Amino acid sequence: MKKYDLITPEGTRDLLFDESVARRTAEDKLRKLFEDYGYSEVITPGIEFYDVFTSKSRYFAQESMYKLSDAKGRLMVIRPDSTMPIARLAATRLKDEVYPLKLFYSQNIFRINPKESGRDDEITQSGAEIIGGCPKKADMEVLNLAAEAIKTFETEDFRFEIGDSAFFKLLISKITSDEEETAQIREYIENKNLPELKAALEKYGCSDDVKNLCELPKLFGGEEVFERADSLFKDEKLLDVLRDMKRAYGYLCCLGLKDKVTVDFGLVNKADYYTGLLFRGYMHGFGMPVLSGGRYDALAGDFGFSRPATGFAVNINAVAKALLKNNGEPLTKPSEILVYSEYDERGFIRCRELIKSGIKAENSINESLESAKDFARKKGIRFVEVVDKDGTVEKIDVI
Amino acid sequence: MSDVIRIALTKGRLEKDTVKLFEELGFDVSAVKDKGRRLILPISDRNIEVVLAKAADVITYVEHGVCDLGVVGKDTIMEHGGKYFELMDLGFGKCKFALAGKKGKDFYKGYGVKTVASKYTNVTRTFFESKGMDVDIVKIEGSVELAPLLGLADGIVDIVETGTTLKENGLEVYEDVAQISARLIANTVSMKLKKERIDELMVLIEEKLED
User: Fold this and answer.
1) What is the DSSP letter of B1?
2) Which of B183, B187, B195 sits opposite A287 (nearest CB)?
3) Which of A11, A18, A232, B143 has the most beta carbons within 10 angstroms of its beta carbon?
4) Does residue A195 contact residue B88 with C-beta atoms inside 8 Å?
């Protein structure tokens, strides 16, 4: 007996009408933006070797990847991420291209979420990546593009947030080199788990570095955070990073985002994959970031091709959901005219004329005029046009 | 006034302790105290909405961002995991996770793989993983104390408050696993979008807790 022939796997779904339109609209807007800014599209395979996703600088938990094996018994995964395949691409077929490279993609990724968590296992991501170039300039370029990306969704209800993974890395390197400890402390900072963080850092005494590490998760908010950071940080290297971040903040303000930008010094990534500036975009109505990105200079090196790189991805599922929620109007409109004819070619000719003149019209494939009218009424199509043998048209208002 | 803050409370003792805390802070909790069967209750003078839910659901609601904040025990956090900010130790609802078993027995003695019964299988697994120890874990929903008594398990991992239930059944604590207390958690996006309001609330609570 078949048990699973009528349902879709957990974490996946059929997208109907407005849902599809919302998704495609978001994708199209970003595609246009990326193209306008001189980025070139790449499409990578849906299935890749497992090895691509087990690089040193970007870690994917193996239980989060959909796996299968090929005819030779080699382990494959269904694409869980687009950045790593692009790094692979840069290190191989794009090696001799003119650098810096500006690439973009719009494709689905697959990740296994804990069961019954209500999260999507299949996510459409549109994103841009810059490989090579002057890192500081590339950072600004990518920030601008990310800000533009959020703006294309025409919502005022968003926030843009910047941070820098270097703060954590510099501070932690001075107090411990133990990987497990580092991972644990990183997790506490990521989760803003102040009580546990304090307890974990207790044994390292109370040097400036420990104090600063303790303060990191609290250093988030608007411009005032910089003042607090100024008074906390003494170390030259930290001050350097701080200067860069102020620059990025000032830059975003210049782009007209002053009341939309916040900073968070406690932005750290579990994957340990970002090496510098990082940023996120939030939209009202969605409990997770809709955009995230940053600098990942070590990744290409994992594929034997050392180049600085930066980029970001937009979670199209999230954007589409937020747009559908905030937008009361239906996105798909019914046709204006249903063309019915007993004489097949007449109907098609009339239909073609109407469409050419910019009217949304469709050809009736109903059995009879009566069923065509009934169909039109149910679908919200206002007019039925009946076309006679000689091409004369009778327009009937069915609503 | 700005957006409403929605806070999910774990029904039962943590709910009562939190409401008491709010009352001490001078919030108008009359609607919450006189709740009847309603599950969403206003603290209108602070533009706060209280949602009452089961412990694990508090985490789910906060994770998905339909509630901005939550009050939940560290036990549920440890068992459930997930992605949210764990902001504060609220200091109440104190108890602990412990490994327990029949009185006078040495749990670690012998070569055989031990069987451990627990309602908190993830906590149990993590605990023994950190020791590098293989154990068989059996999930028990009700009174876990029965499992070693009936000979199903060598030990149990469970929440211990006073230890009376253990004692009355001839069991004892072998080892503490983790300390537990109530935590204030926040959705990661709410924390950013409603920072001022959440900060304001946290400062009030912090001041009260320090007293």
Assistant:
1) -
2) B187
3) A11
4) yes
pLDDT digits (tens, 9 = 90+) for A315-329: 999 988 877 876 667
Query: Which residues of chain B neighbour A282 with C-beta distances below 8 Å?
Result: 189, 192-193
Q: Which of A109, A122, A119 is nearest to A79 (CA)?
A: A109
Q: For residue A202, what are the β-bridge partners? A: none
Quick one: closest CA in B to A264, which residue? B192
Q: What ipTM is given for this predicted complex?
A: 0.73
The answer, for B88 touching chain A at a CB cutoff of 8 Å, is yes
Categorize the per-residue pLDDT at A187 as very low, low, confident or very high, splitting at 50, 70 and 90: confident
Q: Identify which of B60, B65, B83 has the shortest CB distance to residue A286.
A: B65
CA gyration radius, chain A:
27
Residue in A14, A84, A24, A18 with CA at minimum distance from that of residue A49 = A84
CA distance A144 to A206: 39
Report the alpha-carbon distance of residue A211 to residue A280 in Å, rounded.
Answer: 26
For residue A57, pLDDT over 70 is answered with no
**Which token pair is A309?**
């790189």
DSSP-derived letter for residue B65 is T
B195 CB near a chain A CB, below 8 Å? yes
The predicted pLDDT at position B1 comes to: 39
The partner residues of B7 in beta bridges, in order of sequence, read B50, B69
Q: What is the interface size between A and B, counted as CB pairs within 8 Å?
A: 53
Question: Which residues neighbour B65 within 8 Å (Cβ) at sequence distance 6 or greater?
Answer: A286, A287, A288, B187, B189, B190
Non-local (6+) Cβ contacts of B207 within 8 A are none
SS3 letters for B147-210? HHHHCCCCEEEEEECCCHHHHHCCEEEEEEEEEECEEEEECHHHHHHCHHHHHHHHHHHHHHHH
What is the spatial distance between Cα A363 and Cα B1, in angstroms, rounded to a whole number? 54
Give chain A's length: 399
Q: Are strands A337-341 and A361-363 parallel, antiparallel or unpaired?
A: parallel
Nearest C-alpha of chain B: how many angstroms from A8? 22
Q: What is the pLDDT of residues A342-357, one digit of tens each?
A: 987 888 999 999 999 9
CA of A238: how far to CAs of A52, A115, A170, A213, A271, in Å?
33, 41, 7, 12, 22
Q: Which residue has the tokens 């169909």?
A: A375
Mean pLDDT of A172-190: 85
How many angstroms separate the Cα of A352 from the Cα of each of A102, A299, A335, A358, A362? 41, 53, 14, 10, 9
Q: Which residue of B has its CA nearest to A188?
A: B86
| CA-closest candidate to residue B124, choices B178, B180, B59, B181 | B178
Whether A97 contacts A283, CB under 8 Å: no
Sheet holding B155-160, edge to edge: B135-139, B114-118, B155-160, B95-102, B171-180
Nearest Cα of chain B lies from the Cα of A155 at a distance, in angstroms, of: 15
Alpha carbon separation from B206 to B23, B200, B210 (Å, rounded): 15, 10, 6
